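Protocol step 4 of 5: obtain the predicted structure for the target chain.
Materials: sequence only (see below). No template structures provided, no constraints applied. The aim of this step is simply to have a reference model before the mutagenesis design in step 5. Sequence pasted as it appears in the construct record:
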Amino acid sequence: MTKDRTPREQIPEQDLLKPIDVLSLGGEDDPCFGKHHDLLASECKECGDAEFCAIVKAQGLHGERINLETTQRFKDIEEADEDMIKKKEQAKEMVDEYKVKKYKRLKTILIVSRELALDKKIVTQIYDQN
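Step 4 output (C-alpha cells):
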C-alpha cells in the first residue's frame, strides 16, 4: 500500500557542483534542508543529505514536542497519584461488600465516601462500574 504524497511548493533549482555552505543549512535562506524531510520525495532522493536532513527535522520536531508538553496536558505523561489509586481500590472492595449486604445505592455511596474521604462522584462511578 503506497502513501499518497501531497506535492509541496517548488524548490528552486540548485547547482549540485557548487559546495554547500554548512552554516546556512537550516537557516532562513535554506529552501529545504530539515523543513520538508520526506524520503519518498524526488527532491530528497536527489539531495544526498537525507540522513543529515532527517536529524535536523527530528531536532525541530523535538522542540515542537517539548513546547506542546509544556502548554498542554497529557494524561499518559502525568504521574499517577498512588494514594488515590489505593483509595479507589478500597472503595471498590467496600462497594462490593455493601452490595452483598443489600445496602441501597445512595446509602452505600454515602458510607464509602465518608469512610475513605472520597468525592461522591468518584464513588458513584465506582458503584456504577461494578
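Step 4 remarks: The two ends are 44 Å apart (CA to CA). The first helix runs from residue 42 to 47.
Proceed to step 5.
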